Amino acid sequence: MNPITVVFDLDGTLVDTAPDLINAANHVLAGIDLPAVPQAVLRPFISIGSRRMIEEGLAFHGRTLDAARIDAMWKTFLAYYADNIAVDSRPYPHVEAVLEDLQRQDFKIAVCTNKMEALSRRLLSALDMEHRFAAICGRDTFPVYKPHPDHLVGTITAAGGVPTHAVMVGDSDTDVSTAKAAGVPIIGVGFGYTEIPMHRLEPDELIGHYREFGAALHRLRNR
């Protein structure tokens, strides 16, 4: 019998990366003499990507720039963020206990994120979490990325699993759309980065804390 593969999104699901991502966005905005944007303004756009965060930061100040200038700011963002990737970012409470429990029960564990793979590995390594995952697949690992279902399917395969014996865990509409397109059940977390509240996205299971994860996974497996 195939073991279950549990695939986690990264930002807003496994790790609260908002402080460092928002600091990086404000760093590049400061480079064009714009004041810092409040965390609450940028937080919902983290799941969409760092370029969108920059665009929303500009919009907050009523500024628009051409694509070339935004590209330059984005490159500066990535360099700064890479050097400051785990200053304030931390795993969500009880995450590490969940991962240990899954490993003890011989589940396969993987990460499927729209963060670049190298940055994802750097973050997880800095938090001493990289060794837990059979696969870490980022935005640039495959020719496609979330919400394309092949990003999730490719991650499951890379971890040595099969999509018919997999569960996804995510915090955004992108994650829910990806999982549904791939035919993989999803546990939604209610504490991540999304414009639309997770309960409105109708995941197969919804948790508000990782203490609830084991029971949610058990319910999915028994359906």
Describe this structure in words.
- The protein is of the alpha/beta class and 223 residues long.
- The protein folds into two domains: 5-16 and 89-221, HAD superfamily/HAD-like (Rossmann fold, 3-Layer(aba) Sandwich), CATH 3.40.50; 18-83.
- It contains nine helices and eight strands.
- It has helices at 18-30, 39-42, 50-60, 67-83, 95-104, 117-126, 149-158, 173-182, 213-221, and strands spanning 5-8, 15-16, 90-91, 108-112, 135-137, 166-170, 186-189, 205-207.
- The strands form two sheets. It has a six-stranded parallel beta sheet with strand order 5-4-1-6-7-8, with helices on both faces. A two-stranded antiparallel ribbon has the order 2-3.
- Helix 6 (117-126) links the parallel strand 4 and strand 5.
- Helix 7 (149-158) crosses helix 8.
- The two termini are 17 Å apart.
- The relative contact order is 0.17.
Topology:
Layout: E1 5-8, E2 15-16, H1 18-30, H2 39-42, H3 50-60, H4 67-83, E3 90-91, H5 95-104, E4 108-112, H6 117-126, E5 135-137, H7 149-158, E6 166-170, H8 173-182, E7 186-189, E8 205-207, H9 213-221
Parallel strand pairs: 1-4, 1-6, 4-5, 6-7, 7-8
Antiparallel strand pairs: 2-3
Helix pairs in contact: 1-3, 1-4, 3-4, 7-8
Task: Identify the notable features of this structure and list them briefly.
223 residues; alpha/beta; Rossmann fold; 6-stranded parallel β-sheet; two-stranded antiparallel sheet; 9 helices; 8 strands; elongated
